[in-house]
Amino acid sequence: MSLDDYTFPHSRLRRRITTPDRTPLVLIACGSFSPITFLHLRMFEMAADYARFNTEFEVVGAYLSCVGDAYKKTGLVKAEHRINMCSLAVAQSSWISVDPWEALHEEYLETAKVLDHFHHEINEVLGGVETPEGRKQCRIALLAGADLIQTMSTPGVWADKDIEYILRNFGAFIVERSGTDIDEALSTLQTYKSNIFVIQQLVQNDISSTKIRLFRRRDMSIRYLVPEPVVNYIEEHDLYEEDGAASTGSGSGDKRKPGESKGVAGPSSAG
Ligand SMILES: Nc1ncnc2c1ncn2[C@@H]1O[C@H](COP(=O)(O)OP(=O)(O)OP(=O)(O)O)[C@@H](O)[C@H]1O
Ligand SMILES: NC(=O)c1ccc[n+]([C@@H]2O[C@H](COP(=O)(O)O)[C@@H](O)[C@H]2O)c1
């Protein structure tokens, strides 16, 4: 797909809410997703619960937006693969979509521009959502881990005007992450605190894409850390093997299912 063929995916966006006192909310997770993991998916569920119990928002949809290839971060496989893996991961979801718009750009797009794109498509083109009291604009908000918000106080990573623009106009739902001191991460962002919602992880989960890539390079199982169709996709396309680790899986004598540990069903393990 190219930008010329692009259309905004909105089939999973709920277009009507019945609670007039609530503000419709659309969560946007921006990231590398190389590859997407169960933790990334879990972030959406945590944020939806948080919004329902602790805010006056009502979630009407959510999007994964993969960063483009120009981001050039370590371990970033081609955007086409990352979009495909994200699409497989949310294939069964009724409310999470993948928007390829950001990744279809050759140049790097700052997150502020990505959020503007969602505001444009959802509120200007589609006209927001219907409520018993007429149409309402959706609140578009960034969904991110604490490490991402921490980079906002790291000099040179974000332009000050972008931080202000994002946190004033959109806001952020931030999932705590082990290894990141959330209070410290937020210390320079106090001006925007009414627009930053911090979500505690009640079940600690520290899956990261880095660990998945490391496991792949070491020829270790990644099953049950990423969705099964994503495991299969990674195997089929020989992704994340760049350190020369032996390929797992489809060799003729290997009875293992894709991504499964070598320790369970190797061809000659039955001695
Ligand atoms: N274990 C985690 N806990 C909380 N947030 C997370 C976790 N893993 C990823 N995130 C968040 O998910 C979003 C997408 O992150 P990204 O694609 O960079 O994943 P990652 O697992 O951190 O990747 P990498 O390991 O390659 O740095 C970011 O906002 C990041 O903060
Ligand atoms: N200046 C910016 O807009 C800016 C800076 C750093 C990260 N980000 C975004 O944060 C997301 C996650 O980045 P990492 O994978 O590097 O943690 C990406 O979508 C990236 O585009 C944006």
Overview of this protein structure:
- With about 270 residues, this protein is of the alpha/beta class.
- The protein has a domain at about 20-200: Rossmann fold.
- Helix content is about 30%, strand content about 15%.
- The protein has a six-stranded parallel beta sheet with strand order 3-2-1-6-7-8, with helices on both faces.
- The chain binds adenosine-5'-triphosphate and beta-nicotinamide ribose monophosphate.
- The site of beta-nicotinamide ribose monophosphate has 13 residues, from strand 1 and helix 3.
- It is an enzyme of class 2 (transferase).
- One of its GO terms (molecular function) is nicotinamide-nucleotide adenylyltransferase activity.
Assembly category: single chain
Associated small molecules: adenosine-5'-triphosphate, beta-nicotinamide ribose monophosphate
CATH architecture of the domain at 21-199: 3-Layer(aba) Sandwich
Low-pLDDT windows of residues: 244-254, 265-271
| Structural classification | alpha/beta
Compute the separation of the termini in Å: 49 Å
Mean pLDDT: 91
How many runs of DSSP E, i.e. beta strands? 8
